[in-house]
């Protein structure tokens, strides 16, 4: 395993982290007696494999269902000083509720403290305000820190880049969990800001949100040769020293295996990445056209300023990926979250496109005449049954 200094925390963070949202039994709390023994054995085997390969950062959250409770059966049996344990608690308007939720997390984990507490999901200006205002959630977190129940405080976000930067610029957080990988590089300015503030940088779900790379299209497999899509994406992310760790959402012990193949290649990133990136970029130009690739985002309205709250930028981005790289299954998964993702994945899909006139909101786009057709095309290609966020499933 390789380790990187996790910003101002000074923790030596493994470049891969063991994310805790896949190996748990259910997405709801339930009595431990109802958790099947084989599921608990699998979780414990996954944690032991994680530690065996040097991944000592165990990351979970209060609303990852039974994850914390199940971890609480194994973490206290392990050498505490060798673990970096992180949980996350969402901000609340009533900070007392935030405190109660954290105390429940600590109780489930059966630990005296967590190394990292993340304010989970600062995705809107309102949630940022709940966090940083006097008497808000951050003040509660600071008290927990003074009590020795929390070592370092960070935040996770699925929000817009400008909101992430605004949160970072408060200089109140030690680290950030955010999205950034090959197919989605918009948050680089936020990473740059985090680096200026000497914050740890944790990348959320690069293999899942980064294209469902554990079941890649054949086209993506071919374009990424001689690497697998997972290894290419890992290497792309970790070739940037500003990034400290990538989450591996392991479902079973063997899920670490492909990721570990990245480690001996890190010193070769400058040789391995450019030809793959060139192939990927050239294919996108061939399929979509260079003019579209260079200008498709110009003048697009925010979903909040669009009739029907249609999330035009997100829909066109998913269309680009589906057409250029055959990421159709990934596109379906993300597209059908629109309308059901709340502030985690906001806006609506284009299934009711005929009900709205987009002329005015698209007036600043150089592609205003084509976009309605492209939105309809995306609905036809990716639309279907609504998809729920994992935390809404059984």
UniProtKB/TrEMBL annotation:
One of its GO terms (molecular function) is oxidoreductase activity. It comes from the Bacteria. CDD domains: AKR_Fe-S_oxidoreductase. Gene3D superfamilies: NADP-dependent oxidoreductase domain. Coiled coil: none annotated. InterPro entries: AKR (IPR020471), AKR2_Oxidoreductase (IPR053135), NAD(P)_OxRdtase_dom_sf (IPR036812), NADP_OxRdtase_dom (IPR023210). Residues 39-160 form the NADP-dependent oxidoreductase domain. This is Aldo/keto reductase.
